Amino acid sequence: MRIWRDIIVPLFGTISQLSYSAIFSLWIANIAFFAWVYFGLSYLPGEGPTINLAASMLDRFLESLYFSVITATTTGFGDIVPLGYSRAFAAVEAVNGFFLFAAFVSRALSQRQDVALAEVHRISFNNAFYVMRESLRAIRADHYRLLESIQEHGRISDAERDTFLVDLQQISYLTEDIPDFYDVHSDLYVIDRRREALLFGAIQRTLLRLNSLLEAARAARIELINPESGERELTEAITVLENILPLWERHAWTGAEQVFSELRATLDYTKQFLPHTED
User: Which among 20, 84, 9 is positioned nearest to 49, based on CA atoms?
Assistant: First the structure.
């Protein structure tokens, strides 16, 4: 967890030493910046939050500002949801907002810095765990929509293909972070047995949904995976999972052997959809 130790913790310490007004100003600047980002993305079809596109420019900006506030505070009422590129910006803003809030709390409890830092890590861990599960759920939802499109129309659009490629990249990025939940070299919070079971389930369901989609595409003679598009992304996702599985299994709670066996079997099935492994 080198990034956490070498970058995040020192940066957190620096910000937590700022005055309350300076930390609050950074939080407000974070909200304002992303509000303008969402406002700009709202003019790109399918790439901004689901705000009222028929509203005036002022109302559209106010809705973008409202979405920015609830994202920064991780409130998430669900009345406005991010689409396309705005999902990545929303994730970054949520992390920034949570980080600044944690720094504010740590500043207020500076006399108990060690206790406060441990609590912040626990909350950050829970937030990271929640973001990972929700991101995997969003990927499965994308794959379900693509599956429906194939079954109903026998084809997918270019935008849907682009979504599929982005989802494959996200699978790689998300699974790369799994070892961070097992930071056994520090006294900080690590994953418990219940959350580990939830994480197993999320990864397994995502792979099964991916395999179902690839099966349907193959049956409909749709090349979702080919040397020009998709092969690199799928190969990378498979490679990342294969690389982290031994480390994951080594630090996992006892009794997870069957789960890892199922994960490997599912991953082996996914490999058949790579062009160079087809008959």
Answer: 84
SS3 169: helix
Query: For 148-173, what is each residue's pLDDT tens digit?
Result: 999 998 888 889 889 999 999 999 99
Handedness of CA 106, 110, 113, 115 (dihedral sign): negative
Distances (CA, A) of 258 to 38, 175, 203, 250, 263: 44, 19, 14, 14, 9
**Which residues 6+ apart lie within 8 Å of 155 measured at CB?**
149, 220, 222
| Nearest Cα residue to 180 out of 195, 172, 190 | 190
pLDDT tens digit sequence for 58-69: 888 888 888 888
Is the pTM higher than 0.70? The answer reads no
Q: Convert the pLDDT of each residue in 132-154 to its tens digit.
A: 899 999 999 999 999 999 999 88
CA distances from 216 to 70, 238, 278 (A): 38, 20, 16
Provide the sign of the torsion angle of the four alpha carbons 91, 74, 124, 164, taken in this order. negative
Residues 6+ apart with CB under 8 A from 134: none
**Contact at 8 Å (CB) between 136 and 209?**
no
